[in-house]
Amino acid sequence: MSTPLRILAIPGSLRARSTNLLLLETAVLLAQADMRFEIFAQLGDIPLFNPDRTDVPPAVAALRTSIDSADAVIISAPEYAHGLPGTLKNALDWLVSGIELTGKPVALFNASARSVYAQAALREVLVTLGASFLDRACVTISLTADSRTPQQLAADPAIASPIESALDRLASGIAARTNSAANASQPTGRALPNWQPRPFPERRNFRGRYSAIEPLDAAKQTEALYASLCKPSGVSGFTYLPANPPADIEEWRTRLENHAAGRDPLFFTLFDESGNPAGICAYLRIAPEHGSIEIGHIHLSPGLQQTRVATDIQYLLMRHAFEDLGYRRYEWKCDALNAPSRRAALRLGFRFEGIFLNAVVYKQRSRDTAWFSITDDEWPRVYRGFEAWLAPENFDAEGRQLQSLARLRAQD
After folding, report:
1. Which range (218-227, 246-255, 400-409) has the least confidence?
2. Domain total in the chain
């Protein structure tokens, strides 16, 4: 016995007896024996989309799960003022950062022949989300002001026949895609059937064995960071950064205010072992949908460089990305001519991936970019190396290491 096809039906209206719900309920009655329908009834429970929210509302989680487990999705939506109903568009907005609809077979049912603008808008949104349209399974059946029940509609050949034909084409389209995938000769990547986009990192504090990290706050930290990073001893740190040293503290203040206002890059202030602001860095190229994040814009004062505090900082931010947020890939990039940065990446456990030639133009010069990464598969070994190196017993009374990080990692 073959596995039944799972069809998710989404009515785009909240009306208790909308014609779009009526059309889907009729389709349920006319479905083939090997089809199992689920009508999604929680559209009205989905809160307004807010990209700053880091939690997943229960109704959104239910929608994602239902789409992910379905073999195909049917959406039947009305048209309001030549546009989509707000509740449906809001629900789709919650899916923008996900992959639930990527490659998912989708058909549109339409209960009004006049609903052309909404259909076009819905198609545009779904294409943007990566849905795979089964155009031959789309159908329009005018039910405007029709007061019959689903059972009565299913008994009407003029209604039942086009619905049954659309469902037949839906089943054939699903089967064709399944067979195509099964017979594909090209190798594909590791399957991640339960993958969900990861949370976006938040502005938060970190405390390590030796270090402290706080969200960048220009109002509190401009003067201290100017003294640490912009006076003559720290100016060389700007060589491989996108910007030149500031002309004065007010230019520096404006720069930090702009940094602090952004989410990607997400900037942090780094403190030395005495608790003084002594550097900045940022999460950037943040891709929750892929589970990829980069650490960059690293600018350390001379006194913070090559210290256990600097290593502890990198460890804390790396651990947060992998263990708290569940990211799969952690990146480090630098100018290929920046030898200290390349050595630091290798010391910290990054894998060298290669050089992108002529990748960037900055400060009116060309940059070849060296790429490094750590993946979630590699993280446990990197983590154990950090833990062993940062242990108090690995340092003498003056704070000098007894064993190197590379040696401890090699012993694992």
Report:
1. 400-409
2. 2
